[in-house]
Amino acid sequence: MASLKEVKTRINSVKSTRKITSAMKMVASAKLHKAQGAIENMLPYQRKLNKILTNFLSADLPVESPYIKVREVKRVAIVAFSSNTSLCGAFNANVIKMLLQTVGEYRTLGQDNILIFPVGKKVDEAVKRMGFQPQETSLTLSDKPTYQEAAELAHHLMEMYVSGEVDRVEIIYHHFKSMGLQILLRETYLPIDLTHVINEEEEPNKEGVEGHEIANDYIIEPNAEELIANLIPTVLSQKLFTAAVDSNTSEHAARTLAMQVATDNANELIQDLTKQYNKSRQQAITNELLDIVGGSMK
């Protein structure tokens, strides 16, 4: 059995750890509250943009976009979102696991034909351990995402796709549902997927009205070609920015929950150690009393 001093030292050590985990939980919770408000306000806007874009591209309009053309995949780009720091449960481990699975599916293309864009230090380190040379991305896009940085990465990916440098772009990130639930998603970023068109049961409506075109109840000015040319980069940039904010919010949620669990475990351990300390102390007092009584009877 451990001595009283050893047990007391362990209790103090666990109490110090509890202070740290409790403080980290409060910080993560505050960041989560701010990030949650941002993603909840952004998602409806993103969904509306997706609806407009898919309705236009699926309508019977004489417009062809290079972003919807499906090609044989000979070269692929993968964008994976993780955190820059640890202590957030299985958040990063799940992203890395999904990345390994995705890379495994494209192994037949050859390592040089798999381009990985890691957003976050943890997935960047994992990519290097996998033997890949990570593509350059902004580290601040993981913990402090901005639309400008997301748009720069989005335009780079669009240029690579249009030029034929890559034939598909996939993104891996966590979608925030609640503090206790973050869903890991793997989505095709390019080409744009038109199989999930909102209101797809409705027939596209196209007719001339006062010199304007109407598609799915939208009046297009000045023409569909110009509007779609401007809309697609906006939607794709916004989608990548939304994924970055979604991932960042999920990270704070995972860290809040992990620190809560760690704090609860510390409380339980302190209780167990305190019981052990009291029992050992009581046993020591009993032994001393027995020694005194035994000595007086001699």
Automatic annotation (TrEMBL):
Gene3D superfamilies: 3.40.1380.10, ATP synthase, gamma subunit, helix hairpin domain (1.10.287.80). It is found in: Cell membrane; Membrane. GO terms for cellular component: plasma membrane; proton-transporting ATP synthase complex. GO terms for biological process: proton motive force-driven plasma membrane ATP synthesis. It is a peripheral membrane protein. It comes from the Bacteria. Produces ATP from ADP in the presence of a proton gradient across the membrane. The gamma chain is believed to be important in regulating ATPase activity and the flow of protons through the CF(0) complex. Belongs to the ATPase gamma chain family. This is ATP synthase gamma chain. It comes from Bacteroides acidifaciens.
